[in-house]
Amino acid sequence: MRGPRHTLSALSLAAACLLGACSASPAQGEVPEEEERTSPLTAYFEAFYGGDLSEAEQQARFEEENRKTEELVAQCMSEQGFEYTPNTSSSSVSFGSSEEWNPDDREWVSRYGYGLVNWPGREQAEEAPVEEEYVDPNSDYVASLTESEQVAYSEALSGPQPTEEELAAMEDGTWEWDWTKGGCYGQAQHEVQGEDPLQSEQFKGLQDEINAFYEDQPSWPGLAEVDAAWSDCMSQAGYPGFAVQFDAQNSLNEEQNAIYEAADPETGEVDEAAQDALAQKEVELALADLDCREQTDYRRKYEDVTFAQEQRFVDDHRAELEAVKAAAEQGR
Fold first, then answer.
1. Which residues contact 293 (CB under 8 A, 6 or more apart)?
2. For residues 206 and 320, is the Cβ–Cβ distance under 8 A?
3. What pTM, to 2 d.p., does this model score?
């Protein structure tokens, strides 16, 4: 199997998403555009993983990395005694819909709620013509090999099949990618992309500190009061039982999962009436949530607490963060 692109741990990735959400466009009349603030850690996460690049720059980097990787794979496979045709025909990366994801805007929320059942670009995606079936340029060559040769080819290309222990680790989320066991692809990707600095032994301590920092988020001073004010507002609006803001959206996720689980086992079709009802419920709940966030000045107060904590973290770990940033930029 091919190895993944550089990734944060689950906690750090969630944190990075949170940081992005903090800088989303404000609702009308809530936070003036000129007062937009940037999370103290955002610049570092963007530098670590290329988020500071434009879409065009990210696309260009993706294509160049893919080209170099495929060429190295072909060279490696030849050394292993196999033929391999570099595959660069599908070197593209999707950035999603061009419509802005804006859960703080009333018009957006009135249309999409949280973006669970309906979301920007859904209609275009459903109406888009079916793409031509992907054809592996190496399929004919692989088909010409004997069964034992095909097994050897696969192992040379992507490494041996995962063991039972590795499969179990994938299930529980503890599995870690080891490029040395990824065959020619693992070797090529490692050479082209380099090592994720934050995941390296050199900076493992910082990664652990980042994870611990976000694990401690519920106890950050002042955050409980922000959530309590929002929760009380939601109760008065007829939506009791939500302790923190994410609880509202998560309650709908559970209902959405139940609809998917009840889908027709043969066609995969879901109950459209149930979907429509959930979509309406989602919009009503999301609007109440938005009202309460505006009434309690939730976003501003949440940012105050979050940014203050992040700034303390940056101040305490600035040298390490700058070192990872420099390593990441050097590896591009």
1. 27, 104, 230, 245, 299
2. yes
3. 0.64
